[in-house]
Amino acid sequence: MSRFYQAWAQAMRAGDYDRAWRACERVLAERDPSTRDDPAMPYHLRWVWDGRPFDGREVLVRCYHGLGDTIQFARYLPLLRERTASVTLEVQPRLIEMFANLPGVDRLVPFNPASPLPRSECDLEIMDLAFALRAPPVVAAPMPYLCAPPALLPADTIGLCCDSGEWDTRRSIPDALLAPLCEKRPCITLSPEPTELPVLNPSGCPFDIAVTASLIAGLELVITVDTMIAHLAGAMGKPVWLLLQHEPDWRWSPSTRRSDWYPSMRLYPQPSPGDWASVARSVASDLAALKHADVREAGR
User: Fold this and answer.
1) What CA–CA distance (Å, rounded) separates 63 from 49?
2) 292 and 167 co-located in one domain
3) Are residues 127 and 248 in the same domain?
4) Residue where one domain finishes, among candidates 91, 107, 139
5) Residue 237 falls inside a structural domain
6) DSSP-assigned letters across all residues of 89-150
7) I want to staple 273 with a disulfide (CB 3.0 to 4.6 A). Which of 12, 73, 147, 246 is the partner?
């Protein structure tokens, strides 16, 4: 990991965005232009924006990282559109339906890794937008910027997501640790895999983001590990309790327990590496302290 990346990650976690932009400027200055969007590299390791101006130009925004990353940085698209001639968003196919009415996008195109769109006047990867615009999350689109019709669920239902997927399995929490939560309120799982938890949908959540969003819209609270579900629920303005590793990703600041990215989110970091049991006890205690009428305030 380069020292510039470390400086950037530390600044982002601290919410010191000016310092983060300075680190990005140093990285940009050291890049070899011949390696831009290098087809020999996996997409998630490529760099796209070379610092060229985008004001008044046709801009192509590419989504080369994860679904959660795309959801997180989609809030910047309206701000980008204010300064450009047009914005084309080349996005993961699973997000097409969810992003159909997203402000700031003139053209929405499914990303085909085998045949990406040709270069535009200015290309940016969606995670470049905060730096390119020099904009902290507070000046981007207000919450919620994604929405879905609510599914019909019992009152006070809570959504649980224990599985982080294959990207980083250390983010997953054993299902059994969250079983006590299901004794207090009706729960559903937001993971596609079957679960032994006593939830309303033990066979799992449909592998469809629009359907998942409707379920989230019908919930009172989402309790999840660090995965796409956290970003989707946060972007929809739902109360989210986020269960984190002791040293989480750069976008979360465990010392504050709050998130600049999603105001409705509360953070629950491990007190020591691997200690999910303490996290589960803390969540159960906080949930037990809430009255039913307080659940919708749970992320505040």
Assistant:
1) 12
2) yes
3) no
4) 139
5) yes
6) EEE-GGGTTTTTT-TT-SEEEE--TTSPPPP-SEEEEGGGHHHHHT--GGGSPPSP----PP
7) 246
